[in-house]
Amino acid sequence: MINLTINGLATSVEKGTTLLDAAKFLGFPIPTLCHLEGLTPYGACRLCVVEIGEGPRSKLVTSCTYPCEEGLNVRTASARVVRARKIILELLVASCPQSKTIQCLASAHELREQRFKQEYEDCILCGRCVRMCEEQMMAKAIGFRGRGENRSIGTPFDIRSEECRLCGGCMHVCPVCELRCTYAEPEKVLCGGCANLAAPCVDKEKFDDMMCYMAPCVACEIQKD
Predict the structure, then answer these.
(1) Which of 23, 44, 127, 200 is deepest in the core (most CB within 10 A)?
(2) What is the residue extent of each domain of the chain?
(3) So what's the architecture of 128-173 in CATH?
(4) How far apart are CA 143 and CA 176, in angstroms?
(5) Roughly what angle, to the nearest 10 degrees, separates helices 79-95 and 100-108?
(6) How many whole angstroms separate alpha carbon 19 and alpha carbon 74?
(7) Apex 156 CA angle, 141 and 164, nearest 5
(8) Tens place of pLDDT for every residue, the chain, 225 residues?
(9) Going by CATH, does the domain composed of 2-117+182-224 fall within 3.10.20.740?
(10) Residue from 61, 66, 63, 57 nearest 24 by CA
(11) From CA 38, how far away is CA 29, in angstroms rounded?
(12) Distance CA 193, CA 181 (A)
């Protein structure tokens, strides 16, 4: 068994367990986008980053791909982690502002501004569809092609694959295929209608190493009643 500490709570997990699985087992929520139960961890979206280590030697790692290590100290919602997630979400919103999944994540993490040019892309290269096609449907009808800014997903030479059974699995797992209406102006693209405007239970300025990780916030739920 591997012994480690997550958010100050000591725990033991089996060898090979990822930080994401260990945190979820303890009830600590970690947002994910490219990760999907039943598919190989990919670590593309970086939303699941957590902070490991101590002091200036601490670093951010993707929890869906990082295995638990003996004596590791993990924070799933430190100030550094929260800042990183917000920047990642801001970039994702700029890339695909029409995605309901991304908009809901942005709202849940209280993202209030979008400073980058909106691109209205139809793919964030999370790889869900590729892994679904290969690992669950056993087809390998689609895959990645190109590198860098030219990287995309499709069939070889853009020729319809004979392996594709038109099952729709790729569309079912795509976080961009579920659309919502958005404004065209960058300053209006974030709705934030379901975000909590203030956390009544904690003074966030005093919480640098660990932010509130309750989802939903217990105090906010009580306020609604």
Answers:
(1) 23
(2) 2-117+182-224, 128-173
(3) 2-Layer Sandwich (3.30)
(4) 17
(5) 150
(6) 8
(7) 20
(8) 999 999 999 999 999 999 999 999 999 999 999 999 999 999 999 999 999 999 889 999 999 999 999 999 999 999 999 999 999 999 999 998 888 889 889 988 888 888 888 888 889 999 999 999 999 999 999 999 888 888 999 987 888 888 898 898 999 999 988 766 555 565 667 765 544 444 445 554 544 555 555 555 555 555 444
(9) yes
(10) 63
(11) 18
(12) 13
Number of H helices, E strands in the chain: 6, 7
Taking the model in full, what pTM does it have?
0.79
In this structure, the dihedral spanned by the alpha carbons of residues 137, 163, 141 and 20, taken in order and rounded to 10 degrees, is: 10
Enter the tokens of residue 13: 């997990």
Q: Which residue has the tokens 């203030």?
A: 198
CA angle, corner 140, sides to 137 and 143, nearest 5?
A: 125
Residues 106, 2: Cα–Cα separation, whole Å: 34
Q: CA-CA distance, 111 to 105, in Å (whole number)? A: 9
Kindly state the tokens that stand for 122. 């139809």
Q: How far is Cα 59 from Cα 125, in angstroms, rounded to an integer?
A: 24
Contact 31, 109 (CB under 8 A): yes
Residue 136, token pair as written in the block: 């669950």
Closest listed residue to residue 196, CA positions, set 213, 177, 217, 176: 217
Q: What is the CA radius of gyration of the chain?
A: 19
